[in-house]
Design a protein that fits this description.
disordered N terminus, 5-stranded parallel sheet, TIM Barrel, alpha/beta, about 425 residues, single chain, about 15% strand, about 35% helix
């Protein structure tokens, strides 16, 4: 995640309304329950538009899996660090670390957890702007090998906030490389990695890395011809209040997608959230307000308020297909004045890391109020009751072909799919006849 979060507007100005729509399995589905993405003249992709909540996690122990499952969550975002697995020469992997990741993937599969794997962090000296061409080629080989190794993993996210941090190979931290140019370079990598991933597992879905910039970087991807080399657009929306960034940045990015003929492509949000440091940065210390408030209680209250607002808004407005907030277990990161760890007034035995980005305390075991609300609300309940549905779908075709199983009535510019099975977790792909 990015550590730079900005104050956008007063909290009171942001309202969260709405509740999940109906998830009835009766036919036909309403237009908001599914989206037909006419990807090309040869392929149609249909995805379930009912929004789903996942979560990010640093690692995935059995204990954490159990805590996640209590929330009714089945989609978990975990990082596969390239520089930890392939720390030496190309193709030479650390056997012990690879074995540990094998066990993580197997544990997830055994527990019904669908993984979104983020692959990023180039090894050592390869992480240099001057070596970007070599890095793209090696990354393509590495990620292809990982996709073949883990066929149960269908979702792959290529790098993390690569537009602003965490790697230098796309121009981040280079003052002479503007944001749109960084998008061009990222598209160069996509053009190499995407075909390798699809060859390794044709059922895999490729997400762009979660980008912080929601204007110039994605414009650069499209401008450089990257449109056909990713399946899902992906955004991170930090900022205080969180809901403002969550909504407005997503809407702007969706309009960019629309302008490039990609409006029906899925859009995910794989990081948003808030820690105590950002609360202090935005609104000051609770105990310094008039009347004075309890720091710990306010940190928990605002953490829950921000998560709840985003989840409920998306359930109603369906901007993002999947949202994976940051994070199951994560500490406090922002400390602008360098004093928050000493200045915040907290209960005995607590530190500021008990009020970080995570929905668990710093021990990784004790639930915070946000966790308790998620456990009670179970926002994915409707999807989990009907994870697959048989639908009758109609759409206006952009191309002349008709998908397998589809009917094109004579004299009508319409395609009917009379008996389609739609999976809420994995989009349905139909090839043209």
């Amino acid at each position: 995640m990015s550590l730079i979060l900005t104050v956008i507007t007063p909290l009171a100005a942001v309202l969260a309304t709405g509740a999940p729509g109906s998830t009835s399995s009766t036919q036909p589905a309403s237009a908001t329950d599914h989206v037909v993405w006419q990807r090309s003249a040869g392929q149609v992709v249909i995805w379930d538009a009912r929004p789903e909540l996942g979560i990010g996690s640093h690692g995935l122990s059995q204990e954490h899996i159990n805590l996640i499952k209590q929330l009714g969550i089945r989609l978990v975002r975990v990082t596969l660090y390239w520089n930890r697995i392939e720390s030496g020469k190309a193709g030479q992997c650390d056997a012990e670390r690879l074995k540990a990741f094998d066990e993580l993937v197997a544990r997830a599969k055994a527990n019904g957890i669908a993984l979104l794997l983020v692959v990023h962090a180039p090894p050592g000296e390869l992480d240099r702007y001057e070596r970007r061409a070599e890095a793209y080629a090696r990354f393509s080989c590495f990620v292809g090998a990982m996709v073949r190794r883990y066929p149960s993993v269908l979702y792959w996210e290529l790098f993390n906030e690569m537009d602003v941090a965490f790697t230098k190979i796309f121009g981040a931290q280079q003052k002479d490389v503007p944001m749109r140019r960084r998008g061009h370079l990222y598209a160069e990598m996509l053009k190499q990695a995407y075909p390798v991933i699809k060859a390794a597992n044709p059922k895999a879905w490729v997400l762009t890395g979660g980008m912080s910039d929601f204007r110039e970087f994605p414009e650069g991807i499209y401008e450089a011809g990257g449109r056909a080399f990713f399946d899902i657009m992906n955004l991170h929306t930090y900022g205080v209040p969180v809901l403002w960034s969550f909504v407005e940045r997503g809407r702007i990015l969706r309009e960019i997608m629309r302008a490039h003929g990609d409006v029906d492509k899925p859009l995910w949000n794989t990081e948003f959230g808030i820690d105590a440091g950002n609360i202090v940065g935005a609104w000051g210390y609770p105990h310094a307000q008039t009347p004075a408030k309890d720091d710990a209680a306010t940190f928990d209250e605002l953490h829950l308020e921000q998560w709840k607002a985003c989840i409920e808004w998306n359930a109603k407005h369906r901007l993002y297909q999947k949202i994976l907030p940051y994070q199951l277990h994560a500490h406090n990161e922002r400390d602008d004045d360098g004093k928050i760890r000493q200045t915040a007034r907290l209960p005995a035995g607590h530190t500021i890391d008990d009020y970080g980005f995570g929905i668990l305390r710093r021990d990784g075991k004790i639930p915070r109020p946000t966790y308790e609300w998620l456990a009670k609300t179970r926002v994915n309940a409707d999807i989990l009751r009907a994870p697959t549905r048989r639908l009758s779908i109609e759409y206006v075709p952009r191309f002349t072909g008709t998908p397998a199983g589809g009917v094109r009535p004579k004299w009508h510019d319409l395609v009917r799919l009379p008996d389609l099975t739609l999976d809420s977790l994995v989009p349905t792909v139909l090839e043209m006849k």
